[in-house]
Design goal:
Butyryl-CoA Dehydrogenase, subunit A, domain 2; binds flavin-adenine dinucleotide; 13 helices; 397 residues; single chain; 3 domains
Length: 397
């Protein structure tokens, strides 16, 4: 198997790297490289820089404004952006909703929403989970009833990430409570968050940050054409969308950047006069992780090479499991490498201010929060237990 890139791919990589080095604002790069929190404006600013270059939506077909890249180019682009410290794309609009709009959105929806998603003028969030509907998503209770030429929506969504930054939501709601199976009575809607009857309440996660929310809908009225595709087919569209979510959750580029950071930090931490990275037991842990990451990288490449022929299938479940476990493992080893100095939770460090009196090196300040937040990656996008159930079923087990 030849794993070297062809020459034309190398010149593409040079072009992308030179662009990112020139255009990515230093302050944003610094936050990403040091594991600090990004603000909304950081994401929007970077998205617009990419948009001006025609690179804001690398996975979109050319007819919808994508750059028309090959699978390999898309993969390299994502990797270089991660390595160079660019913010990850906000996935909800461009990576999750857009493929559904390509497949079943009306012409008007495509023309209106896609260009605005590309610039992050419209920042979408995902209204799927509810207090009683997470793994068992089909039991969701939020109701949408057609009254004249409006849908009237009532219910509650849970864990709606980035709704505090968002302008729009894509939402699953029950439109036919009498359907023979619960999955057959669900529809998908898209509409602005700034309509009367919507209340967004923060949930502070155990890293001390505001990433996610509860969202309440009380007699929310949206136009008839806020529905995507056909009524009661929302479950099929959600499956297509979740396949894309699970692929993006693999986050290979981000783990590569984190692995590099781990090696650097473990090279600076000393144990009995020897860099930690050179001690056999720690080196073994780092090597085992790197091997897992290389295997994941190849699996993702294989999977995206098949895209276009099929929607993501069981490979998406597989890379979600592995990718999330690897992300957690890196943060565990980072905390282990730094030892007690990594334990204090320093919220100021997450936002770039830094503690007045740090007990360890500067890089220690963000490690606890990042360790805690990364616990979520085996839960969201469908928990890893559920991914394993799906895989087992597909293998006939
Ligand atoms: C920080 C955060 C951000 C999130 N962001 C979003 C978002 O933006 N939009 C959105 O819609 N959702 C979001 N989610 C919701 C996420 O997708 C759900 O939390 C997830 O699907 C699990 O559902 P649950 O929390 O209801 O847990 P439950 O479904 O109650 O599961 C509890 C535990 O039981 C296990 N379990 C459940 N059923 C089975 C089974 N059949 N077999 C084996 N084990 C099982 C689960 O794996 C889990 O460990 C987010 C969640 C978190 C924590």
């Amino acid at each position: 198997m030849d794993l070297t890139y062809p020459d034309e791919a190398k010149s593409f990589a040079d072009e992308v790297r030179a662009f990112v080095r020139e255009k990515l604002p230093h302050a944003i790069r610094d936050k990403v490289m040091n594991g600090r929190e990004l603000e909304r404006d950081d994401n929007v600013a970077w998205q617009r820089i990419l948009h001006a270059r025609g690179w804001a939506t690398p996975a979109w077909p050319a007819e919808y404004g994508g750059p028309g890249w090959t699978t390999l180019q898309r993969h390299m682009f994502a990797e270089i952006l991660s390595e160079e410290g660019a913010p990850a794309f906000i996935p909800f609009g461009q990576e999750m909703l857009a493929p559904v709009l390509f497949a079943v959105g009306s012409r008007e929806q495509q023309q209106h929403f896609l260009p605005r998603i590309a610039t992050l003028e419209y920042w979408f969030c995902q209204g799927f989970s509810e207090p009683g509907a997470g793994s068992d998503l089909a039991s969701l209770k939020t109701r949408a009833v057609l009254e004249g030429d409006q849908w009237v929506i009532n219910g509650q969504k849970m864990w709606t990430s980035t709704a505090q930054n968002g302008t729009h939501i894509f939402l699953l709601a029950r439109t036919d409570p009498a359907a023979p199976k619960p999955q057959m009575g669900i529809s998908m809607f898209i509409f602005p968050l700034a309509v009367p009857g919507i209340t967004v309440r923060p949930i502070i996660t155990m890293d001390g940050e505001h990433h996610t929310n509860e969202v309440f809908f009380e007699d929310v009225r949206v136009p008839k054409d806020a529905i995507i595709g056909e009524p009661n087919k929302g479950w099929d569209y959600a499956k297509l969308l979740l396949g894309h979510e699970r692929t993006t959750i693999a986050r290979v580029g981000q783990s590569k950047r984190q692995l590099k950071r781990l090696k650097k930090i473990a090279g600076e931490e000393m144990v009995d006069g020897v860099p930690l990275l050179e001690t056999p037991s720690f080196r073994d842990k780092v090597a085992a992780l790197e091997i897992e990451l290389m295997s994941l990288d190849l699996s993702v490449l294989r999977m995206i090479a098949g895209e276009g022929k099929n929607a993501p299938g069981n490979e998406a479940n597989m890379v979600k499991i592995k990718g999330s476990e690897i992300q957690q493992r890196v943060t565990e080893l980072l905390v282990e490498a730094v030892g007690p100095a990594a334990l204090p939770y320093d919220r100021a460090a997450m936002h770039g201010a830094g503690s007045e009196d740090p007990i360890g090196p500067d890089y220690a300040g963000t490690l606890a929060a990042s360790y805690f937040m990364t616990r979520v990656v085996t839960i969201y996008g469908g928990s890893n237990e559920i991914q394993r159930n799906i895989l087992a079923k597909s293998l006939g087990l």
